[in-house]
Amino acid sequence: MWRISALPRQSLAAQWLAAVTELPQLLSQLRPYLRPSTNTLVANVSSDASYLLFESPLSAEGSKTITWSQLQADPVLYATWQQRQREFLQVLEPHLKTMQLKGVTQYSPNAACLLKLVLTHPQHLYVVNGKDPVVLPFYDQAFYQKLLHEQPQLLTPTAPASSASAASAGPAGPAAAGLAANTAAPGSNATAATAANAAPAMGGAPLGTAAAPARPVWPWVLLGLLLLLGLFGLFWWLWQHMNAEKAQAAAAELAQSLVAEEQLLDQNLALQRDVAERIALAQDLRLLDANRALLQEVEAKLKDAERLSLEQALSADTATLKQNLLMQDLVQALLAAAEAKPAVPAAPAAKPAAPAAPAATADKGASAPAASAVKTKRLPKCEVIVKEGKVPQLVMAIDGSGSMLNVLPDGKIRMAAAQEAANALISRVDRNVPIHLLGIQGCPLARDYGVFSGAQRQRLNAAIAQINPLVAVSPLRVLTPLVSAMRGMAGSVPANTDAVGILISDGVDTCSNTRNLDLCAVAREIHAQKPKLKIHVVLVGDDAPEAKCVAAITGGRVFHPGNTSELVSALKTAGQTLERVCE
């Protein structure tokens, strides 16, 4: 509950002290029939020995005082004030009519009249959050005197009364005269004039004036009219008395109708939000269909390019094979010639032939380096290791979660930098090495893009482009199945084949089924199953320190690049052993 203000009791206009004391009970009777937004229009009031305390259920944030002229100058705020004021007065009207039937003046000192007075002639106004007006049921003595001076009709009784009716003139005249006497300041001519003008309206004569001379005709006509007016007032009082309960029931029904309309409005707003969400979903579906059509077109072009690339690769491999066969025949011929020369014995009788020995020795020395060069360890033959299934393998797992949309210090998005580095590595890897690609995006399992041969490098580049959180409908909700990616790397390579794994990530596992697992324990499990798999860990963020032990356990390295160029260099270093694996 926000305390708006605490005003001294002694500054309150004395006529309204009892009315302010009765006001909480009246407000508690009215509030069940008011909408929540209208309920806050009038502040709650409580009191202690020295102060009147005014509170509101609204938040104090953004509150400020405002004058009546400032309220009228704001069209939106003034329209809100008028709507809530009208609703409040509609619920208050039965109480006012009941008092009017009892001969109470329109603004005599009671709680209902004070409430109507502050709603039609406010003094203390507040605005909360720039949209909710709040009025305090409080009048300073000076403000109230000025109000009576400017609008003397506030002292006029609204209930019908006749000067000939003692029952009407009795309570109304003294009440109005007492109210004028209490509100008049010493020496105030305007207030005295107001009281003097009010007395004739209440059935008396102005003070200090002589009685008018008798008229022969019109006094009787006036008396008849007054009698008719008294009879009409009596009929009106009886009708109001009989229908007071009906009026309260109508007010309650009106309040319930307002509540029902507000609920209907809330339902309409909810329906509008649902329609907006469905429209947005339909737009996303249309975009997805367009992307799917574009992807099919790209795949068709990639197939054509792949077929052409395969034919070119086969031609190049055929030429290389022919060159290797010619080189092999040449080496075998050299080896045969080198082995045949030392087998020829020298003739014993031919002594002059002895000087030729250095030449033979020279020939033997000349052929020795060639033989030793031939016998040095070379790369295995490609057709041999392919046939035996011993070609080293490369498996890459690239993070495609929402956090990869963050920016590196050089201004490039992490996802774009990782894709650039992966493409740079692929261009250097031996075309005999198959590359297995995994996408760390979406729970519960990492996405398996399959194995790509040397002739499928373009398709591999296109698959890497698909590892992107922006492809998803809601990129910020793409989670990180890190454990699933590590197990997928281990499951994609044979146990007895050398393999290099490259794990590119900036986060930890965020899937509900694996986020509590220990990455180091998972790495030890993988190393026990696939001891020849070395996993290099490339960290592009600061929030995955646990992943470092994966490289330490499997025999790999940890790279922590700070920008795009360092990331490209790290991947080239991680895949350096696979640049040429056979000849």
Automatic annotation (TrEMBL):
Residues 393-581 form the VWFA domain. The keyword Lipid metabolism does not apply. Keywords: Membrane, Transmembrane, Transmembrane helix. The chain crosses the membrane at residues 217-239. Gene3D superfamilies: von Willebrand factor, type A domain (3.40.50.410). It comes from the Bacteria. InterPro entries: VWF_A, vWFA_dom_sf. This is VWFA domain-containing protein.
